Amino acid sequence: MTVSVPLVAILGAVVWLAWRYMGLRMWHAVLALLFGFFLAATSAAPEIRRIVAAVIRALDQH
User: Fold this and answer.
1) Which of 15, 17, 36, 44 is the 20 to 30 Å CA partner of 28?
2) Does this model's pTM top 0.90?
3) How far is CA 24 from CA 13, 33, 34, 46, in A?
4) d(CA 25, CA 39)
């Protein structure tokens, strides 16, 4: 997927905003990070990557 770095930057900004303004605790962010890290090592990772790419392509068309 060619938009992985900008996507990570956007998601990082969303997490920072949630931490700053919505009361997200640091341990919540750490748990989400660990969940994503371990999820990437499962057999579901290619399907998730395909879905995210399809959503980005759909949003890019509009």
Assistant:
1) 44
2) no
3) 13, 13, 16, 29
4) 21
